Amino acid sequence: MKINVSRNQIEDFLREVDSLFPVPISSKTDLGNYAKKITENADVFACISEGRIISMTAGYISNAYDKQGYISIVATLPQYQGKGIGGKLVREFVDEARAHGLASVHVYAVESNTPAVQMYLRNGFQHWHSNNEPRPKDLHLRIAF
Known about the structure:
globular
């Protein structure tokens, strides 16, 4: 569900899931700064257990550019993976984007991250390519409304 979580909760979660990504988040950006950016600018959908985030989808609906939403991160702690929590949060994000009148939602995934790519495809995303692709090494997926 869409939820307000603290910067510290987000940063703690990012530290827990960092090494799960094919390219760790910390190799691209400072986790504290990223947590701050998410807290201040993103729409966060999270599942909380015992006061900690166990799964999170965050991105830009309210701060979308040109009616194009963008999912910045989807992650679930290992012990909760395979239960459909991440997919549920992605669907909630997409539903919220549609309700806000956005035209589409975009997400990038590393091609070798098969579980993530399959989850996006199951949830209606399709392969997409745009001119001047900002992340040409990653798969660009999009769901349009």
